[in-house]
Amino acid sequence: MLWVIGPGLIVMLADTDAGSVVTAAQSGAQWGYRLLLLELILIPVLYVVQELTVRLGIATGRGHAELIRLHFGARWAWLSVSMLAVVSIGALVTELSGLAGAGLVFGIPAPVSVAAGVSVLVLIVWTGSYRSVERMALLLGAFELAFLVVAWRAHPALSALVGGSLSIPLGDHGYLYLAAANVGAVLMPWMIFYQQSAVVDKGLQRLDLAAARFDTAIGAVLTQTIMIAILVATAATVGSAGERPSLNTIQEISASLTPFLGTGVGKLTFALAVTGAALVAAIVVSLTVAWTLGEVTGYKRSLEHTPSEAPWFYGVFTFALVTAASIVLAVHDLVRLSIAVEVMNALLLPIALGFLLLLAGRALPAPFRLGRFYAAFAALVVMSTSGFGLYAAINGIATG
After folding, report:
1. 309-351 pLDDT tens trace
2. Among 63, 139, 211, 347, fewest CB within 10 Å belongs to which?
3. Is 168:182 a contact under the CB 8 Å cutoff?
4. In Å, what is the CA distance from 193 to each residue of 7, 84, 255?
5. Which domains does the chain show, CATH number per domain?
6. CB burial class (10 A; 0-12, 13-18, 19+) of residue 390?
């Protein structure tokens, strides 16, 4: 069990990335607890989606893009990889912008914190095996637990929490835009590709399926608990005034919590949590790009290879980070950009989840095939989540 656990926890900790932190903080600040119920509903949805990737990876021994190429052809594989590249660069921009924002809280210039972050990530991946990279990612992700302390110190009122979560203004386009951003912040296309590739690279076998499912379930609960903690913290503090403030930078989010949590706790805790979230997600997303491109082109793509043995793999990993860093240093409104990236994730969900469901029907051998009831349930989850994300995004953008 302990040997198997890792891919699920890491991808879920990466799910609560810097962009998700921003989205949850904006949700609490502008809408109080009204998006809390959506976060709870997304727990089983997240598990169902990622469990299918675990099942596909263990049963076939192949990554997600490779399976698309084998079952649907090279054109569809390149379409999926192109989509992944777009959302991944967008995600990396949010991670590094979160890192820059955390640095600015303490007066560290953005170029310094971004360059330091990229250097640390390159060092971790270029000098480690899969197991060592996994351990470092888990260690970095553990800093996200600091958000639980932030929520506890915010002292949310139970009556307001329950009442607010049941008040859902579906007719408000601003609410729908943030609802779409929350769906896109929880269900990200790169998560599907990463966990399947990680399962394969780690060498998990058929006997490991039960433990891998447990790994995924624990991760799904943990990542949503962190998202809820961020939402509750801002809802119980700045969101309780009824002014619906728009927090436009990481510094503003941190500063808005400081009067309620104290200067020391407000700054240090928030900065550590954002830094951990940004770094673990940056590792996951950049590795996803390198793994997936290798699956459709055929170059060596394992962390068990050294940089000299797999130059394309490590080169793509580094190029993705450097590209995102360049964009971060050129763009100013990073919070709005982060939320826009999450909405883009929601718009692309039908493609990502559609391929996942089709592969579950085609690629799984007999012992791993979905039962009739579970197949129907998975299809319902995929279609309803994709449909809501698409509806909320389109309606929110149309009036945004």
Report:
1. 999 999 999 999 999 999 888 876 666 666 677 677 777 778 8
2. 139
3. no
4. 12, 8, 36
5. 7-398 (1.20.1740.10)
6. middle
